[in-house]
Amino acid sequence: MRALPLFLLLAALPLAADEPVPAKPTPKPAPKAQAHAAPAPADTPDSPSAALAELASGNGRFVAGKRVRTLDTGRDAAMRAALAKGQAPFAVILTCSDSRVPDSLIFDQEAGRLFTIREAGNTPDLQGIASVEYAAEHLGSKVIVVMGHTSCGAVKAVREANGKPLPFNLWALQAGMAGLLESTPQDPNEDAKAHTARLEEVNARRQAQVLLDRSSLLRNLTAAEKVWIVPALYHLASGKVQFFKPLGAAAPAPAHH
Question: Which of the residues in the chain have pLDDT under 70?
Answer without folding.
Answer: 1-38, 249-257
